[in-house]
Write a structure and sequence with these properties.
By secondary structure, the chain is α/β, with parallel strands linked by helices. The chain contains 15 helices and 14 strands. It has helices at 5-27, 58-64, 79-83, 85-94, 114-119, 132-137, 140-146, 160-175, 178-199, 230-236, 256-262, 292-303, 312-315, 333-343, 353-364, and strands at 30-34, 40-44, 50-52, 73-76, 102-103, 124-128, 150-154, 209-213, 223-225, 240-241, 251-253, 266-271, 319-323, 374-376. Helix 8 runs antiparallel to helix 9.
Length: 378
């Protein structure tokens, strides 16, 4: 006997409600992860509203959410806009709605507005590991937790050679982009291990001594790196980092007189287009909007500073400028490839770092390759 119409409708309503309930439960799945600060946190998988403490965390998000890296970003720091205008222009041209994302201001400022983060409906706040202790001391972590906002720490700057891979894989798990994270991991390991296979057996005494000047033309000479970041890039590429002899910190200030007296075999410097945010900058404006002619002009001017012409690296044209943003991005290994080829052209004669960087854009990024990211003094 057929069921009464009202009963059939009630059954349908119950089934529909159950399906919505189960769908909602699946969408709100919570997973347990360990972040780069070693904190075990419960986080909503595939969150739809995240805040990036640093705009340059977009470099990673662009690989994971390639179709639209801004789709779940409701707020971000202003450092990418201020410090990498070439990249910002390319992303904005392809994703014009990015201009509507809430600007959280300078990510390195003393105060972070928990109220502003909460007002955006934030589910996950992605914070750089360098801010861990400050976030603890100011009570920000406790306030965010009380507000139901999960904080996750990642690291692409303090110790990238150790922390890039776990940071990308952590974000891949959280964002439901494990496939993309694993594809990057395979590519990353292939490139970094290929460098090690060619330089790993070279005795230290046969490796060139390299000084790297951090943000040359923006910071006073001679800001440099200890055994981290660009200092570590040099070592992984088969060189000896001058700063590692004297400093144990991520960054340090070297005396210009000491650098000139030690007369390193190779001189590196980092640069970017800081002219908008720092009009007095004389840095080599490397990046997506750079041209070879302008880069060379700026590089020559920096190496014409008093005292630098006496360096054997300058006289022998063993001077290179590198895109400063490699210090805060997951594909820093591109810089290592270019360094290794400069140190050992015979061992890397079959390697074309620029071709690999172009391939990386095609495989992993939503924007096309353009500009200049490293240059040798001509």
């Amino acid at each position: 006997m057929p069921a009464p119409l009202w009963l059939a409708r009630l059954s349908s309503a119950v089934l529909f409600g159950a399906s919505v309930l189960f769908a909602g439960a699946a969408a709100a799945e919570t997973i347990e992860v360990t972040d780069l600060a070693g904190r075990v946190v419960n986080v909503t998988r595939d969150p739809q509203k995240i805040v990036l403490s640093e705009g340059r965390q977009l470099y990673t998000l662009a690989m994971l959410d390639r179709e639209d890296p801004f789709k779940r970003v409701v707020g971000w720091g202003n450092d990418l806009i201020e410090n990498d205008p070439g990249a910002w222009a390319k992303y904005l041209a392809k994703f014009p709605k990015a201009k509507d994302i809430a600007n959280m201001g300078n990510p390195y400022a003393a105060d972070v507005s928990m109220e502003k983060i909460a007002s955006l409906g934030t589910e996950v706040y992605i914070l750089d590991l360098s801010n861990y202790f400050k976030a603890q001391e100011t009570g920000l972590l406790a306030k965010l937790e009380k507000a139901g906002i999960t904080t996750v720490f990642v690291d692409f700057r303090q110790d990238p050679t150790q922390n890039v891979l776990p940071s990308v894989q952590l974000l891949g798990r959280i964002l439901g982009r494990e496939k993309e994270a694993n594809a990057f991991a395979d590519y990353y390991l292939r490139q970094t291990r290929s460098i090690y296979a060619r330089v790993g057996s070279i005795p230290d005494k046969q490796k060139p001594m390299v000084f790297v000047e951090r943000a040359a033309g923006l910071l006073p000479c001679c800001a440099t790196f200890g055994p981290f970041n660009f200092g570590r890039y040099i070592e992984e590429a088969g060189g000896r980092n001058w700063g590692s002899q004297f400093f144990s910190a991520f960054q340090a200030q070297a005396a210009q007189e000491k650098v000139l007296a030690d007369n390193p075999d190779v001189y590196f410097l980092t640069g970017a287009n800081w002219y908008g945010s720092n009009p007095g900058s004389t840095a080599v404006a490397l990046g997506y909007d750079a041209t070879p002619e302008q880069v060379q002009k700026q590089l020559v001017a920096l190496m014409n500073r008093p005292g630098f012409q006496q360096l054997k690296a300058v006289q022998g044209k063993k001077v290179m400028a590198f895109y400063h943003q490699f210090y805060d991005m997951p594909y820093y290994f591109i810089a290592e490839l270019a360094m290794a080829k400069e140190f050992y052209p015979d061992r890397f004669k079959d390697v074309d770092p620029e071709a690999i960087f172009k391939e990386f854009h095609e495989k992993f990024l939503p924007i096309s390759y353009s500009g200049v990211f490293w240059a040798r003094l001509q």
